[in-house]
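Morning!

This is the sequence you dropped in the shared folder:
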Amino acid sequence: MWNKLANFILRNRIALLILIGGITVFMGYEAKHDTIAYNFTQMLPSDDSAWVDYKNYQQQFGPDGTVMIAGMQADSLYTNLSMFNDWYTLDRAIKHTGGIENVISAASLYNVTQNDSLNKITLTNLLSKKPGNLQQLDSIKKTIFRLPFFENFIYNKRMGSTLMLITFKEKEVNTIRRIAIVDSVKAQMDAFGAKYHLTMHYSGMPYIRTIISRKIMNEMLLFMALAILVTSLILLFIFRSLYLVIFPLLVVIVGVVWSAALINLFGYQITVLTGIIPPLIIVIGVPNCILLLNKYHTEYRAHGDKTKALHEMVSKIGISLFLANVTTAIGFAVFCSTHSAVLVQFGLVASLGVMCTFLISLFLIPIIFSFLPEPKIKHTSHLDRTYTVSLLTKVDHLVHNRRKTIYGIVIISILISVYGISKIKALGYVVDDLPKNDPIYADMHYFENCFGGVLPMEIEIDSKQPKGIFSEDGKTLYKMERLQRMLKGYAIFSRPLSVIEGLKFATQALHEGDPKYYIMPSQSDLQSISQDLQDAKGKQNLVKAFIDSAKRYACIDLFMQDIGSEKMKDVLTAIVPRADSIFNYSASTQSWLPKDKRYKVTFTGTSLIFSKGNDYLVKNLMESVILAVILVSLVMYFLFMSARMVLIATIPSLIPLAITLGLMGFFHVHLKPSTILIFSIAFGISSDGTMYFLTKYKQDMKKCNLSISEIVSQVIKETGVSMIYTALILACGFMIFIFSGFGGTRALGLLVSVTLLMAYSSNLIVLPSFLLSLEKRMNQKEELKSSLSVNFDRLEEEESPEEK
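The structure's back. Tokens below.
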């Protein structure tokens, strides 16, 4: 097959060049239409109960991540007339920015008052215009501070902090327009801060996602440039020839274009994961070119015939290169088994990109070099460099004479790693992929200290019947108030907002604005106040955002701190049963409500979905690693048809994974989606070295009448050079990701680099050691068989006369 393919490629060079060129032009056109994902990344499968609850909540009450938060610590806001008036102007300017739904700040608050003429509770603007003097400003300050509704929601009296809550229009929040809106809002806020020498703080999901989207695009371009630079320098170091640098890179860039086009062709968008595929393709694709060129130079130096060398390059290295790329693709493809949209997209595009780049390399390298001059002595001198020959000679000596030492070091390393593995925790934070010195972290801690948090948490109450929220006895509302009081006992939550706060606000109005009456109305007043709040028009309706049109569902909105997935589970374990007992356990009858009359209390929101998604992905990605091992083992079995050889081939690639896990435990690197990715990818790529070595080993076993020991030495010498160069390219190539602004991408780069260096070392040292140990065992078996045969012959000779 591979002989026929080599003939086909060399006989149809022009036609294949035109075909690949035409496909690349089409792919380039498709790649131009790639767009960044601006929406919330879906980590859970669509049929997961937590995701279904989240989507149902959004259908009832709209998206939860639409509020950008801007804040400052400004004690002088209510004593500096110019500052307050500029804050008022800024409030109105941002409110009129395209894409903004609403703005709430100290300059645009409402007050609930009793309208005696209408005998109703009404909502009125606290400020209809700018204050004209300090006396008016002081009066505004006193009024605001007498309204508990806004305390720890818009202002924090103790900390001297104030907020501006900026709500984005639903149709704009998940589009590219969001970036321009966020930039416009931030520029206006920064100008205000600069004028009054204030530090402005920003947070909220629209802002965080905008920063992340911008980082993704910037980093994709940065890593593309770094990958090209690093691989160019290494290729130049290896081959010492410009055209042996330029043309392999050109081949790999074609693979990058095809991979980028796949993102658009599948209808996907660029995410933090798919954004690293182009530089990954460069890093993974260049070793294909190195292996092909090394074989080409080896063959040419053996007989001096360029055409024959190119033919032998394809026919002899093709199978090992194909199997190596299959194992790499498997390392990515297993992510498709997670049913998580973001990982399925990454796994599918990356695996197809790897195989496309393999085919492009296999076709273009022989075609391009068939048109180029024959290699000169300086081009093939890399095969005999002193340091590589010396290193491989030492490796050969070690595996033949120091196998016990090798096995001892491996066993000790694994035992130490097992202890490190025992210290690993599965833990993720919403923004822990950003560096700790990123302004987002500092601002998030500011809002957590002053206002409780910035990550949305939503609670939906289903009364199971129309108008069940506003029942005549008000039991649902009183239960909601009890739930809110319970939540206030947890410092990780902000003040809850719901229809309950509107009722308390209205009760305060009934008692001439006295703050001590910011309480739930009595049962006698509850119906009339509730009706007034429901009858209010437009923005004066304080309950519309918290109650559905049928008045069956109600929601409680609150923000929470980024406490991590582990603590989130503990919190939910504590509060979910308490919430259920508040709504469904009757203290008077000391019994639970009948099932058909029970309330359904659902906790959801971005923070909870992230926590559930983190746990889901960690579990499924661990299963993906196991699946990758099984699939690669099947490829090995297909190659050798021997379970023993599968074991020998798999262990050298698993040892580095165990050591890496141990290092993560010792250095407190948590298990989370971004770090779990490392193992499937690293195992798939590190199995390449196994394939290079074993396919050559199998070929030599068939054609050479040599012992296993002699064949192992021969294979170390021939494949070792390519494996060293490949390990160098891969380690340096993945190391570029340490310059990422995302912690997960940095961990991916560093840990994959370390793992691959260990894996290729293992494939050069441990794998041949296993093969030699196998030879020794086989020789012992042969000696035993021979001994048994001799003993049996002797027994026959010593038969008794009677038997004779």
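Headline: DSSP finds 25 helices and twelve strands in the chain.

More detail when I'm at my desk.
O.
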